[in-house]
Amino acid sequence: MKWETGDKLMLNFKYNGSYYKADAPIVPASISGDGKTAQFTITVPSEIPADAAFDLYGVYQKTNERTETNGGYFLDGTNTYRLEYSEEQCITYNQLGTIQTGILRPMLKFSQTGVTQSTIGEIALQHTGWVMAVTFKNSTSAEMQMPLYIQLNGVSDWCVNGFPQYNGVDYDCTTGSFSTQKTELRHLEYTINQYNWLPLSGGKLAAGASYTYYRWIAGSTNVPALTAELQINSSTAVQTASTLSAKTTALGKVYHVNVEWNGTNFAYVGTQWAEGSLNTLNISKEVSTGLETLTSQGIQVRGGKGEIRIDSPLSLGRGAGGEVAYVYNVSGMLVRTLLLLLQGAGGQVSVPAGIYIVRIGNGAEKVLVR
Predict the structure, then answer these.
(1) Of all helices (H) and strands (E), which one includes residue 190?
(2) Which residues contact 349 (CB under 8 A, 6 or more apart)?
(3) What does pTM read for this prediction?
(4) Would you identify the CATH topology of the domain 292-369?
(5) 128-280: which CATH topology?
(6) What is the pLDDT of residues 127-166, one digit of tens each?
(7) Domain residues of the chain, as ranges?
(8) Are 194 and 117 in contact (CB under 8 A)?
(9) CA atoms within 13 A on the CB side of 293
(10) In what order do the strands lie in the sheet with 73-74?
């Protein structure tokens, strides 16, 4: 995990029994070379006198760019932080869909009690969860669509944010505990290719290829034995015949599990529960899709066989040098550029099969190339 421009801390000040929430934006120039440390601008609410003591609680979680109704804020008048909704759709570490879901969103926290404006100390964030990485292998002899979803099902309740959808998941910063409105807590879902706004929508896996999906787990470190379910398409679902052994995990770690589909059976394979560090994951937005869609600007982007075609009835020659189309792969790497010079101009670029994001000016569009 690394700090980046645009990050912020969500703060909650407790004074005389009341809570006052505020954001602390990052100071971009303060981000260290390794991205591990940074400074934030903390503004103490005006309701707290300059020399008064208060308790300070804070949370960091990558939040989307829509509205607070999607989570990512402290509930008014409480010390309870409501996590971002739809965690089951956040199954990559660097790819956003069109509604800002897609990147896993670990939550970290800190607290300082009995401080004043002049004695707020250095902030050391603590992990409140861990990551479960599932590597899925297409062991058939043919290319396949990425599955709609993979679900790990416990023999008992264990995961408060396993399949929250639009049910709130809350963290009490006073007690250090998670809670949820949902009553069924056995399932951990990786929603992969079920909706067109997801970053992996329309994705395919070649014969013999593998892909790793990630989920951040809130709190629970006692994992029961798990079966796995693979939803291949709307009419075909299969389950593993065996279970994954129970495991006690540690906060701030990543644990890897391997599964495969051979066209007949879905099974756990290879080494299970291999441990890594969450610090090795970069959750930064490599390619921001918090932009207008190109379609809304009248620009058509189409994927064909080995190429991307761009057509526009609008004037793209906004400067003397025209407009540039930037083509990124799903890892955020720039792979092609195309200069569009004339009004009504179009063009195409050759690229291998895969999913790409095309950015022109302040607009972006995702496209699938066969």
Answers:
(1) strand 187-191
(2) 307, 308, 325, 327, 336, 338
(3) 0.73
(4) Immunoglobulin-like (2.60.40)
(5) Immunoglobulin-like (2.60.40)
(6) 999 999 999 999 999 999 999 999 999 989 999 999 877 6
(7) 8-82+92-126, 128-280, 292-369
(8) no
(9) 13
(10) 73-74, 80-82, 169-172, 177-180
